[in-house]
Amino acid sequence: xxxxxxxxxxxxxxxxxxxxxxxxxxxxxxxxxxxxxxxxxxxxxxxxxxxxxxxxxxxxxxxxxxxxxxxxxxxxxxxxxxxxxxxxxxxxxxxxxxxxxxxxxxxxxxxxxxx
Length: 115
Known about the structure:
Blueprint: E1 7-13, H1 17-28, E2 31-34, E3 39-43, E4 49-52, E5 63-67, H2 71-80, E6 84-92, E7 95-101, E8 107-113
């Protein structure tokens, strides 16, 4: 079980998804699960993650994703602690999440699994 408030996933830009997957597979033995033509989750890397190739997603640097059992409560806690919500809660296959910016300008996300 994923622990609340812990890093659970990292998304990386993957503009050339086939080449990116081939590189990480050959160099490090990572495995992949495709979630459509512009997203591939990776495994066997020590930490779960994925490569985002959709230019409309605007991912230009790594995105650290934290876990929360109660997404709305965590969103409120982020705001109360001085974080800025930059992408409100939205659904995606497997769960829901939001993105925020910390006081240093770093973008992170928090997700919860589908019930």
